């Protein structure tokens, strides 16, 4: 059993989404004590953005890449190897300006590679990262669940599904910036859901 934890917060310390993602992993380890856990902290180890140089490297045949291009592709190769090996993926996601953090988008770009993690067929695209369970922990200052302002859940459900990860559960901690009482209620509800799904 391999568990991959992705911390998407821009903060390495004090992030509620990271704390809650860690709690999911702790509960999963209760059920799978021999599991191997890999943690990607995207604040400490951010992925480079997908720019013109990166595209040039990815679209250059491997034997023709410069050393710089090979090094750039190797960064994404490592992320792909981690997600391919994972049986369970836990992603801690804060909401920044109604969207996902740029750090998370860069990671998604890194693991999204044609003919490796998805492919196109005569029936349309097919995800190749199948057979994985994904838990997404969402930390938000306000209340956005099931509203038009929530762009995170539709985006993550779509892109993860595109890559073959359709078994996705979302855990919500909302209202964290709406006063101490609201924050404590949000964390209590999230922890209740964490205990339930991990069981």
Automatic annotation (TrEMBL):
NAD recorded as keyword: yes
Catalytic activity entry: 2 a quinone + NADH + H(+) = 2 a 1,4-benzosemiquinone + NAD(+); N,N-dimethyl-1,4-phenylenediamine + anthranilate + 2 NAD(+) = 2-(4-dimethylaminophenyl)diazenylbenzoate + 2 NADH + 2 H(+)
Top-level taxon: Bacteria
Binding-site residues for FMN, renumbered to this chain: 9, 15-17, 95-98
Keywords: Flavoprotein, FMN, NAD, Oxidoreductase
EC number, as in UniProt: 1.6.5.-, 1.7.1.17
Pfam families linked to this entry: Flavodoxin_2
Co-factor(s): FMN
Domain Flavodoxin-like fold span(s) in chain numbering: 1-196
Record function comment: Also exhibits azoreductase activity. Catalyzes the reductive cleavage of the azo bond in aromatic azo compounds to the corresponding amines. Quinone reductase that provides resistance to thiol-specific stress caused by electrophilic quinones.
Description of how the protein assembles with itself and partners: Homodimer.
Similarity-based family: Belongs to the azoreductase type 1 family.
Name of the protein: FMN dependent NADH:quinone oxidoreductase
Species name: Uliginosibacterium silvisoli
